[in-house]
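User: Please write out a complete single-protein record containing the residue sequence and its fold in token form, without commentary.

AI:
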Amino acid sequence: MKKGVLRPGHMQIRVLDLDEAVKHYTEVLGLIEMDRDPQGRVYLKAWTEVDKFSLVLREADVPGLDFVGYKCLNESTVDTLRQQLIEYGCTVEDIHENELNGCGRRVRFDSPTGHVFELFASKEQTGRWGVSNHNPEAWPRGLRGMKAQRLDHCLLYGPNIAGTVDLFREVLGFDLVEQVLDGDTRVAAFLTSSMKAHDVAFIECPEPGKLHHISFLLESWDEVLRAADLISMTDTSIDIGPTRHGITHGKTIYFFDPSGNRNEVFAGGNYFYSDHEPITWDAEQLGKAIFYHDRVLNDAFLSVLT
């Protein structure tokens, strides 16, 4: 049953050099810088996103993920889910309004995989960048780089994904869209709070709290191929692609920001309704599931995490 979680709202990631990271995310991915705060954090958004920001960069000694925030329908939904998270056994922390610039109060909680998540309902809405809500044009002029359309999802690694999957399904109301089974054991799970192929995914890993990638939507396969050109033109470190996934069927390419955080841009993919049964892949078909064309696993793709 849906619980009022609308969509991924923001991610805060750690980068080693803030200036290099800002250049990457604005000039290569094409995000728009929206704000900076006294802590030195930089706030970015993709052009179709209505809320003020979706990605926050924080300079640190070690790259990786600080937290993922999900936007809820309203403040009463946040209150209800806060209580249910406590009853589930999560450690819950209340974050005051404007601790992130332009964002309302947030409820932060831990998870069995060691990741930190947040729920919120209020954030300043600046509108789609360069496009009015009144008689809008098709796209804004002045976009740069890959012209990312939105922050779409993230893939996270950690232990006890069964516990985190249960948390997301039973407490937050996410649906299981796709899974990889090794016998009777679920080793990967793809979850959505919407009609998308996934809003978050988890893969079993002994190290807690690890980030595999953050993913941004592009308009088409042609745009994915153009992204590949830009990766070469800018000497950006490439991981794999362009190719197609078996899981989700999205067309994709993976690369790294200057700090080693993996990025994905993709187009297409499956859709989901709540009456759909989960799609299941067998673990022995994992090569085809991840890289549909090559059907062979890239060890670095599975093991390089931040």
Observations:
- The first helix runs from residue 18 to 28.
- The helical segments are 18-28, 75-88, 161-171, 221-233, 286-290, 299-303.
